Fold C-type lectin domain-containing protein.
Amino acid sequence: MWSGLTVTVLLLSAAVTPGFSTKYSTGQEFTTTFMTNRLNSLGYQNDTLGLIISAFQPDTSVSVKVLSTGFKRELFLQKEEKASVQLQPSSEQLGTQTPFSTVIIRSSKAISVLSYSNNSRFIETSVLYPVQNHGNKYYVFTQSSQNDLFSEFVIVNTNQTNEVSVSTKVPATTSGSVHEDGDIKVVLSAYESLYIQSDETFNRAQVTTQNPVALLYGCRCTTFQLAKCQQSFEQLPSITAWGTDFIVPPVLDGDGFGYVHVVTDEQQNTVYINDGSNKIIDNDLKLDFNTFSALSIRATYKVMVMFVCTGLHSGQSFKPFNLNIIPVHLFASSYLVYKVPHYNNSLLLVAESSQTDGVLLDDKALPQSVVWKKVADSNYSWADVPLGSESEHSVIQHKSARIGVYSYGILPKHGSYGYPAMSFEDYSELILVREKKTWMGAHKHCQSMQAELVSITSLSMQQKVVDLLGNVTEEGVWIGMRVSLMSGEWYWLSNEPMEYSNWGEGEPSNPFEELCGTIVPKIQRNFPWNNECCYINMPFICHKI
C-alpha cells in the first residue's frame, strides 16, 4: 500500500496558455478506469488500487464513484490537504468484458488526482487529466508484451453518447469480438469504456471520437531484455496538449537505457534535434536515448514526445515506465508530486539557464550537490534533485520563472515509476490596499473582504508580498503580525508558527509601545519587517484565501 505517501508542493510564477489549460492536471471532474493487471489476469488479486486526491482551496467537497461495483466515497478537504481513496480489487477492468468499470471523481473546487496500482514489489502510477483537458483524437503506441499477454488501451467516455472510430492496423479484440482489419466503430453510452487488446504491438493506432474522451494505454508485461516484467499504463495526452518545443532531461542522470518517441499528426513535419540532425517525419520518430545529455526537440508542427525507460540502470533491472514529456509552452506556475516510501525518489527540473539560481527547496537554495547542466542548442538547463526515500514534505519554488518538473523513483531490482509533476494554481490572493488605516482598522477592513491581514510565514510568501509591493515608496505597510498582550510574544493572525523571520536590523524594538508588524518596501534592505505603534495610519495587505 501507499501508506506514508507524502506530498511535495511546488510554488512558482503564473502562466496562462490559450487552448489546453496550463493547469493540465487540475480540474473538477475526472474519469478513468484501472486496466487489467498481469497477476490478476492469472488469478491473483494482490494489488492495491487507489487514488491520491489533493485539494488547493478550502472547503473542497469530493465524490468518488465506481460504476461497476457501486462504490461511493465522499470527502471534505481543506487547502493543501490530500486523501488516499483505496478501491475494491473488483474495480479493475477485467479485459474487454466490463465496459462500465469507469471511476468518476467530481469536486466542488479544483483538485488533482493520481491513480496507482501497487503490490509488495511494484507500483504503477498515472496522472489523471481532468475532463476539460480530454481530447477527441489520439495516437497510440505500445511496447511488446511477454508471456502471451496483450498490448492494450482503453477509451473512457464521459457523460454523453459518443461515436468512436478506431484504426489499429493490426488484429484487435473488443467486447469479445475480433476485428481482423483493426477497424472498430462503436457508439458508447455515457461513462462506458471501450477496452481494446491485441497480441501484436500497437504502432500508431488512431482513435477519433465525436466528443472528448480519456485514453489509457499500456501492457501487462512490457518486453525489454532483462527488465522486470510488470504492468505499465499511462493516460495519454490528447493532440490539444501537443507542442513544438520540448526539453527531455536524462532520467537516472543518463545512466540508464531508454528511447524517445516523437509523434506527428502532420505530413512532412521537420523535427530539429540538438544532436545536429534534422528529421522530416510523416508519422513518428524513435530516438535512442542512452546519454548524459538532455535532448532539445523543436518541430515545425505540433508533436507528442514520450520517454520510455527500459528498466536497466547500472547493471540492475527494474520495471520499465513511460514518461509523457510536457511541451515548454505548458510549463506551469505550480506543481504537485508524491513520493513513494522506500523508493529512491527524485525530481527532474528544467529551467531557463538564466533562472536556475531562483529555484529553492524548502525556502533554501538547492543543495550544493545539485548540478545544473546546460542543454545544448537551447536556453535551458536541467538538474536531477534527489528527494530520498523517507516520508517528508518539501516545497520548491521559483522567484520569477516557469519551469518544468518531473517525478520518478526507483526501487533497486524491483519497481520504478515516473510521471510529469501535476500542475496546479495558487488560488490565494494578495490585495494591496493603499488607503491608510490603523492596524486594527486594516484588520477589520480585510475581514470585511472575507480576507485577513497577510501572514508571512515562509520565504515563498515573503517573495509574493515583495512582488506585490513593487515600487511602493511608503515607510511601512501593515501585515498580520502583532504582540500578544498575554504572553508578550509575536504571533501571526493565521496562527501559524513564527518559524520564518525577516526582521530588519535591530528589530523588533520598543516592545512596550510598538506592538504591530509592518513590512518596509526597501529593495536595498530586502524588504525587512519592522514593528510600529498600532495607531499609525498605513496602507496594508489583505490575504484572501
